[in-house]
Amino acid sequence: MNSNVVTVIDLMKHYGEVKAVDGITFSVKKGEIFGIVGPNGAGKTTTIECLAGMRKYDSGSVNVLDLNPVTDSKLLKERIGLQQQESEIPDRLKISEAMLLFSSFYHKVLDWTDLLKQLNLWEKRDAYFSSLSGGQKKRLFIAMALIGDPEVVFLDELTSGLDPQARRSIWELVKNLQEQGRTIVLSTHYMDEAEKLCDRIAIIDSGKLVALDSPSNLISMYGGFTRVSFSVKGKFPADFFARIPGVESTKDADDKCIIEVSKKSAIVEIVKALDGLNQGLDSFQIQAATLEDVFLNITGIEVRD
Ligand SMILES: Nc1ncnc2c1ncn2[C@@H]1O[C@H](COP(=O)(O)OP(=O)(O)OP(=O)(O)O)[C@@H](O)[C@H]1O
Ligand SMILES: [Mg+2]
Questions:
Q1: Are 46 and 52 contacting, i.e. CB atoms less than 8 angstroms apart?
Q2: Alpha-carbon distance 57 to 207, whole Å?
Q3: By CB atoms within 10 Å of each CB, which of 11, 66, 84, 259 scores lowest?
Q4: What span, in angstroms and rounded, lies between the C-alpha atoms of 279 and 231?
Q5: How much is the mean pLDDT over the chain?
Q6: Which domains does the chain show, CATH number per domain?
Q7: Helix H or strand E segment including 27
C-alpha cells in the first residue's frame, strides 16, 4: 500500500518571468509532520496553494489523498484544512459566527467550541473579527483550518506573529493532530519550530528543492561544526588550540575566542588546556549546530521574519 498522502512530481508554477516553483519533487507520508522552509519568496506559499487546490500550476503532477487538487478540488476540500499565510474574513463577523459558518461548509465537522477552547479563544467567542489582535486572528484561522476534521492539514506560516506562549501551545496542538493520525504540512520561518516539530523538512530556495531530510540528518550533513566560545584575559593563544586534534578553526572575535570542533574529545582537551593556561576564563559556551546553521549554510541567508 502506498503510504504517501502527498506526492508532488516536478511541480512548476511561474508568474511571468518569476519562477515561483521551479520543478519541485517530494512526497509526504501519512501521519508525518512535514516542514517547508526557505527564504522570503522561495515558493513555500505557492507550493502549499498548489497542493491545497487553491492555485493552478503550470506543469508537473500533484496528488493529495489520491486526488488531483485541480480537477478534484471539491472532493479534496472535504478532506483537507488550510490555514493561509494571509487571510481575512468580514470585520463584523463574530468568532462564534465564523466557526458556525465554516462548519456549514463540511459534511463532517469537529466541535468548534472545543477548538476555540484549545486555541484559547473561547473567551473571545462573541468578539468581532475586527477587534482581534494579530495573534488571535492567527489562532482563529488555525481553528477554521481544523473545523472540517481534515486528514491533511496545511499550515502556512504556522506561528508567525504569535507570542512565545501561544507558539508553544500551537506546537502542542500540532503534535496532538499528529497523534490523532492526521498528516501536517507546514511552512515556517522559525528554525527552532521546524527542528522541534517536523519529522522531515524540505528546504526550498528560488523555487527549487535544495535539501530534504529529518532535522537531525540535515544538521549532521549541513550544520557545520560545534562551536566552543569563551573569553580569556590577555592574548588568545589561537595556535596553541589549533594543535588539538578535532579543532577545525580558531577565531578571536570581539574579545571572544571561538573554536570550531569536529570531535567531542576536542572539547575536553580545550577545557584541560584552558585550565593549564591560567588566563582567567569567562563565559564558556558550547553550541552544537542547529537547523539555523543548516539554513544559513545552504541558502546563505540569515533567517528573518
Ligand atoms: N500572485 C502572484 N503574482 C505574481 N507573483 C507572485 C504571486 N504570488 C507569489 N509571487 C512571487 O512568487 C515568488 C514566490 O512567492 P511565495 O509567496 O510562494 O514565496 P514564500 O516562500 O511563501 O515567501 P514568504 O516567506 O515571504 O512567505 C515570489 O517571488 C513572489 O513575488
Ligand atoms: Mg509565504
A1: no
A2: 13
A3: 66
A4: 9
A5: 93
A6: 4-220 (3.40.50.300), 225-288 (3.30.70.980)
A7: strand 18-29
Q: Taking 80 as the threshold, does the pLDDT of residue 11 lie above it?
A: yes
Query: Interior CA angle at 191 toward 305 and 184, to 5°?
Result: 100
Residues 243, 77: Cα–Cα separation, whole Å: 61
Which amino acid residue places its CA nearest to atom 7 of ligand 1?
15
Look up the pTM and report it: 0.90
Pocket test of ligand 1: the residue of 12, 24, 46, 160 to mutate, having most ligand atoms within 8 Å of its CB, is 46
Check pocket membership of 169 for ligand 1, CB cut-off 6 A. Answer: no
Grid cell of 10 as nine digits: 516536478
Taking a C-beta distance cutoff of 8 angstroms, is the pair 288, 215 a contact?
Answer: no
Instruction: Indicate which residue's Cα is closest to atom 12 of ligand 1.
Output: 20
For the chain, how many residues are written? Answer: 305
208-213 vs 247-253, strand pairing mode: unpaired
